[in-house]
Amino acid sequence: ASKPEFTCTPSRNVTLLEGSVLLDVRTQKDYDEKHLDGAILIPHDSITNHIPGFAVNRNAIVYVYCGTGRRADKALKALNSIGYRNVINLCGIKAAEKSLAK
What we know:
Layout: E1 21-24, H1 28-33, E2 40-41, H2 47-50, E3 62-66, H3 70-81, E4 87-92, H4 93-100
Parallel strand pairs: 1-2, 1-3, 3-4
């Protein structure tokens, strides 16, 4: 069976504005090995349960990344389903790192 498609467009020159949030949606092990500065770890499979604990405004820009973009896409869809409208998939950690590089 083929894997479902997901949308992931690497961005360039992303600036984390005040009020925006950077989420790492990988596992604790992945996060412990390497993560981007300022990223909050919320694994993609528990994001709808845990995001309320971070008091993230539903209108805030939420950037998500994972290893390749696939889990970030799942997180994006899960967040959209609970009312977050400004969720951006930065793809995998390497692409996200380039996006945020100054």
